[in-house]
Amino acid sequence: MSSSGTTRLLAVGSVMSAATAVRMGRGYVKVWSKETPKLLDLWLEALDPESESKAPGKFRDELIKATRKSKDVVCAEVERGISDVEKFTAPKAKKDGAKAG
User: Fold this and answer.
1) Where are the alpha helices (DSSP H) in the chain?
2) Which residues contact 48 (CB under 8 A, 6 or more apart)?
């Protein structure tokens, strides 16, 4: 790989890393803004010492479910970022069909 190719790879990787971080953050906020009201209701119900509900167990289950959703968002965005770097830095094909390198 030439010096300019290495520089381009570093630049593209940096930009894609920043874009991935933004997409991960956006997805994380989206998941938690949707799940938080339900979790708060369950948490408050679980705190009531007079309540004989199943709120503590349900709170735990819902919290773990929301955490798994967040993990899925993060993993998907990291995979997308890696694919973007690969796509934007792949050697361009020459006119005769051979890859440049």
Assistant:
1) 3-47, 55-89
2) 55
